[in-house]
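Quick log. Single chain, no ligands specified.
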Amino acid sequence: MRTVLVTGGTSTLGRSICKAFVEIGCEVVCTYAHHKEKAENLQKELGPLLHIEELDVLSPSSVETFFSRLDTLDVLVNNSGVFTLSDQEDLNIEEWEKVFNTNVRGLFLVTQQAIPLLKRSSKGCIVNIASINALHPGFGMTAHYDASKGAVVSYTKSLAAELGPKIRVNAVAPGLLDAPYLHEQGNPVKEMFVQRAVLKQLVSPDSVASCVVFLSTNPAITGEVITVDCGYLVG
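-> predicted structure:
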């Protein structure tokens, strides 16, 4: 039985990723930073294969303590992340650091601690959650977020070269995820995405999760960034 770690497991996408791995019989460690109740509800929903643990990816001591209690790991899914909007002339350094600290620094801290465990696995792999914003920047008011996810893409490719052949490293770059707030009538973000996307729809979190599972199981793929965007980038 494979052991899978999903950071940010209580988010909309994190929940789908945890569920997808549980459904194929993996033991899943779902981490949360602030939403303990959501994690407990997810545990009740998915059953004994799901374990919940508190983890602050921004804190080196929290990350070190967490991994000191983890005995085995086969798959790391770096899903923790934040998204904000800001005009770049008005963006303050605190907001810039908030986005980069979570999306890049936190990913690094977790990955660094996970590498020794993944090396001991016969099929160790890492799947990072990037974004189509890294590949098609310029949506407006997202330059800081786009830059952070661009760093995730570069880090993914560099790690794949450095850690192979023992550990495979890939990334998934989702498009606009289907979420309740986007169903307000006339939401401009939704309308922009759906109009351009070839499939004329938002991205289901379950579709992204199934791609994460695929990358975790295919032994011939490393150093790749797979877009799951309903055809937005080619629209």
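Residues 3-228 form a domain with the Rossmann fold fold (CATH 3.40.50.720).
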